[in-house]
Amino acid sequence: MTPVRLQRLTLVSSITGAVIVALDGTVLTVAQPTLQRDLGATFVQVQWASTGYLIAVAGLLVFAGRLGDRYGHRRVFATGVLGFAVTSAGIGLATGIGWVIGLRVAQGVFGALLQPATLGMLRAAYPPDRLGKPIAIRTSAIGLAAATGPVLGGALAAHLGWRAVFFLNVVPALGACAVAAAVRTPAPRFENDAGPAPVRPSRPSRPDRLDLPGACLLAVALSGLVHTLVGLPESGWTPVTTLGLAAAVVAAAAFVRHESRTPAPLVPPRVLRAPGVTPALGILVSASAAMFGALFLCTYYLQDVLALDPFRSGLETLPLAVTMVLGAPASAVLLRRLGARRTTLYGAALITGGVFLMSRLGQASGSVAIGSCFLLLGAGFGTVMVTATAVVVRQASTHTAGVAGGLQQTAMNIGPTLGVAAATMLMTAFAAPGVGAKPDGGPYGNGSYGDGHAFISAMGPTLTALAGVAAIGMALALRLPGRARTPVVSSNDEAPSPAPAGQPTP
């Protein structure tokens, strides 16, 4: 198989896997009310169908990436996407909410397997200096899936029932699995970013063993953090949420200590020490937290304050999807011309400006003002996604690309959860006394803020604080590599023994 054909098939598999996950998250939100009524489930049970998935994904992403580094990203991807298809079909056939919750947790496990592999496969198939374009195409596809997901999910749930929403994933997932399994030629490995010449990897560069204790400690830490962030908006600081946070802190401390002592760490130190990787991960967390926190509040603003129906609300947010889809390829061009530092700085500035302008919206704001906010958010987030992800992936060796992809996906899972939790708690803190109590319909729905003045008064400072979170990404962007080409970790950097004769040493 020619390298060009291999790259195309890899890109198709990567995009399909990423789109399936993006669609699954957006269409499920629309289908939840129908699912709850059909199965006679409580609101808490339906929420656990989402929470269980989030916890499973967040806790296993880095370990799944390491599995890809050890056994091959295509193999792990094929396993993950096949399992995702099977569990999706199982949820569509489920007869009770217990089955739905259990299968959603299993789906989270398989989702964790396939997500880092989508980036690991790209890193193995493309030279580092050409990763921007495929990552941009992947980002555009994710944006398009996120935009069409609610519309598609609503149409399926309305005409065919909620089960059709889950059957939607089966065919494309099986197709992606078939493509990944059919590619037998090993992906080319690029020694550096100077050219596309493939290098045969040495056998000793393969990790000797998996760090299972480290994987367990990290899973407990991340699961405890996600559980706490999900529970705080609904119940506040209860013994359960406090215990979850305490478990996360203790496990995180134990993980750091273990990683510093073990000879084969789950996250090799050189991955985080590579130029710009740690700041890029921080940028992804801050940008996604700011944007998804703002989107969470804006949903209630559009429907409860401006009294728009869900369809009209979707039209108001359409500029976000359009600019994200169109802006991602443009950001790949800017990345090559301006470098990661300036391009990411501009993207983070757009997010900061968009969230801040959103904090100025009121009851008299029109479509132009609202659309302008979403236009800035979409353009900025698409840019940050492409550039920060490219920095993380390209700086990793081909033997640690899975771990790098797992860290990137972890940041993209933690950020939105953190943003929604922060938005909810800040709204409660800024709410006027006597208003803002949570009704059964949701945290801010059913007129809990009276005529909307109280909601607007709390929304302003909350979104201003979220703009400050986005501004952290601007500060972190200054620590990214500039326009000059930076050394990329070679494919032998993680070798546990010296390079064989005839090959350059790290």
Walk me through what this model shows:
With 506 residues, the chain is an all-alpha fold. The chain has 17 helices and no strands. The longest helix is centred in the first third of the chain and has 37 residues, at 3-39. Residues 185-207, 435-450 and 485-506 have low confidence and may be disordered.
Q: Tally the beta strands.
A: 0
Write down the overall geometry. globular
Q: Determine the fraction of residues in helical runs and give it as a percent range.
A: over 70%
Ranges where pLDDT stays below 50 over 5 or more residues in a row are: 185-207, 435-450, 485-506
What percentage of amino acids are in beta strands?
under 5%
Q: Number of helix segments?
A: 17
Major beta sheet summary: none
Task: Give the ordered list of helices and strands.
Answer: HHHHHHHHHHHHHHHHH
Q: What is the oligomeric state here?
A: single chain
Question: Whole-number radius of gyration?
Answer: 22 Å
> What class would the helix/strand composition place it in?
mainly alpha
How far apart the termini lie comes to 30 Å
Mean pLDDT: 82
Task: Offer a few descriptive terms.
mainly alpha, 506 residues, disordered C terminus, single chain
Describe the structure concisely.
This protein is mainly α and 506 residues long. Helix content is 74%, strand content 0%.
Ordered list of secondary-structure elements with their pairings:
Elements: H1 3-39, H2 43-71, H3 73-92, H4 97-125, H5 132-159, H6 163-167, H7 170-182, H8 212-235, H9 239-261, H10 269-273, H11 277-305, H12 310-316, H13 318-338, H14 340-358, H15 367-394, H16 401-430, H17 453-477
Helix pairs in contact: 1-4, 1-5, 1-7, 2-3, 2-4, 2-8, 2-16, 3-4, 3-7, 4-16, 5-13, 5-15, 8-9, 8-16, 11-14, 11-15, 11-16, 11-17, 13-14, 13-15, 14-15, 14-17, 15-16, 16-17
